[in-house]
Write a structure and sequence with these properties.
Layout (H helix, E strand, L loop, with lengths): L7 H6 L11 H12 L7 H15 L4 E6 L10 H22 L3 E6 L12 E4 L2 E4 L13 H4 L5 H21 L14 H4 L2 H22 L12 E6 L3 H6 L1 E3 L6 E3 L4 E4 L9 H6 L6 E5 L5 H11 L8 E5 L6 H14 L5 E4 L6 E3 L5 E3 L1 H18 L5 E5 L34 H19 L1
Parallel strand pairs: 1-2, 1-14, 2-5, 5-8, 8-9, 9-10, 10-11, 11-14
Antiparallel strand pairs: 3-4, 6-7, 12-13
Helix pairs in contact: 4-6, 4-14, 11-12, 12-13, 13-14
Pathway: Metabolic intermediate biosynthesis; chorismate biosynthesis; chorismate from D-erythrose 4-phosphate and phosphoenolpyruvate: step 1/7
EC number: 2.5.1.54
Family: Belongs to the class-II DAHP synthase family.
Length: about 450
């Protein structure tokens, strides 16, 4: 790993994929220069702590729960929204830890997930063609010429929104909200009356009894009062990520200080591309998405370039095949990578391969397909004797109706009730808890 990261011009010369076309290069330079002076959002030591946890995941000693919005928006940076997302992740982690009997690494898909790759640079509606919405980091969602022009001042807005989100998360996890004795208070409002909520309430009662026993014998562990919670996002916009790269004074290594864990997307994992070149220089724990087009040789070549020292906890492969393809596509990948001696954590993204358009015109996913892909992921690893390291889910803490199915039996007509995502559909809070119980059962079967 080099002590310097190539400059932006050198990265762009490699043909950086999925970057916005800004109309004013001077404005871009000015905003990037300002970002370079801003304090870090996360610290190198925190990234190292997460890397150690990811090393445990890669060894089969822990399980990763990664979740949050498909695309964050500036308007949703409120205390209620941040708390709601954190609350459901805490509930899911409790379910996985208690019912799955394995330590759970908690990683939010938040405080930086403001940019999204798109299949086309342009979007046409009713004969009008404008730049595609690439997330609040780039342009606005409203379909107007003014809104859709890429605006580099939004890069500073991303920093400020991420700082506010992280500040809230840190306050919640250190201020008592994440105390395991709060396990009942996390199960509020519409969730409590659902089947998943009732099942959670029963589990919370068991935890209460266990905590009462520990109190009775004088055990007062700090681990019960707080949680380690880290942030992650797809490091897509090179201007932002490069500007948020700093040299750590302890190690003299470059870290991306915009998030603890950053990943390369399926559309930007070109071996000779700008994103892989950037990522191979930073010391954070990193991920790389692998879809159906990825061969085992592709994965091995990426591992050799991104993690040449084969360091535990450094690299995570996040697979996104789709429920219908994972059982055929994943085994050869895992088998060949494992045979090559590559140290990597395997994580399942059961969301992106299962998206379709409903008859009512909404981009959606079936809950059953999401679960089937996770089950396929576990089945493949069980057959190969390897460890299913975790799941990455797009979810929210709210009562949205964006994915079909689950215990609430949301149908295609019901999507219109409360569809709020600006890009991809998310599991709502009840569906997220249902998923956690089902994954916990898969984990229990794996560790039995």
């Amino acid at each position: 790993m080099s002590s310097t990261v190539p400059d932006l011009a050198a990265l762009h010369a490699l043909g950086a994929a999925q970057q916005p076309t800004y109309p004013d290069a001077d404005a871009v330079a000015a905003n990037v220069a300002r970002l370079r002076t801003m304090p870090p959002l996360v610290f190198a030591g925190e990234c190292d702590d997460l890397k150690a946890k990811m090393a445990a995941v890669s060894r089969g000693e822990a399980f990763l729960l990664q979740g949050g919005d498909c695309a964050e928006t500036f308007a949703e940076v409120t205390a209620d929204n941040v708390r709601n997302k954190l609350r459901v992740l805490l509930q899911m982690a409790v379910i996985l830890t208690y019912a799955g009997s394995v330590p759970v690494v908690k990683l939010g898909r938040l405080a930086g997930q403001y940019a999204k790759p798109r299949s086309s640079d342009m979007e046409t509606r009713d004969g009008v063609t404008l730049p595609a919405y690439r997330g609040d980091a780039v342009n606005g969602f409203d379909f107007t010429p003014e809104s859709r022009i890429p605006d580099p001042t939004r890069l500073l807005d991303v920093y400020n929104a991420s700082a506010a989100t992280l500040n809230l998360v840190r306050a919640f996890v250190t201020g008592g909200y994440a105390d395991l004795r709060q396990v009942h208070t996390w199960n509020t409002d519409f969730v409590r009356t659902s089947v998943a909520g009732q099942r959670y309430e029963a589990l919370a009662g068991e935890i209460d009894k266990a905590l009462g026993f520990m109190d009775a014998i004088g055990v007062d562990a700090d681990e019960l009062k707080r949680v380690d919670f880290h942030s992650s996002h797809e490091a897509l916009l090179l201007e932002y990520e490069h500007a948020m790269t700093r040299i750590d004074s302890r190690t003299e290594k470059p870290y991306n200080v915009s998030g603890h864990f950053v990943w390369i997307g399926e559309r930007t994992r070109q071996l000779d591309g700008a994103h892989v070149e950037y990522f191979r220089h930073i010391a954070n724990p990193i991920g790389c998405k692998l879809g159906p087009s990825a061969s085992a040789d592709d994965a091995i070549a990426l591992a050799e370039k991104l993690n040449p020292d084969n360091e535990e906890g450094r690299l995570t492969f996040i697979t996104r095949f789709g429920a219908g393809k994972i059982r055929d596509g994943l085994p050869h990948l895992v088998e060949k990578v494992t045979a090559a001696g590559i140290k990597v954590a395997w994580v399942c993204d059961p969301m992106h391969g299962n998206t379709f358009e409903s008859s009512t015109g909404y981009k959606t996913r079936r809950f059953d397909d999401v679960i089937d892909e996770v089950q396929g992921f576990f089945d493949v690893h069980r057959a190969l004797g390897t460890w299913p390291g975790g799941v990455l889910v797009e979810m929210t803490g709210d009562d949205v109706t964006e994915c079909i199915g689950g215990g609430e039996e949301i149908d295609e007509a019901g999507l219109a009730h409360r569809y709020e995502s600006v890009v991809d559909p998310r599991l709502n809070r009840v569906q997220s808890l249902e998923l956690a119980f089902l994954v916990a059962e898969m984990l229990r079967a794996t560790t039995a």
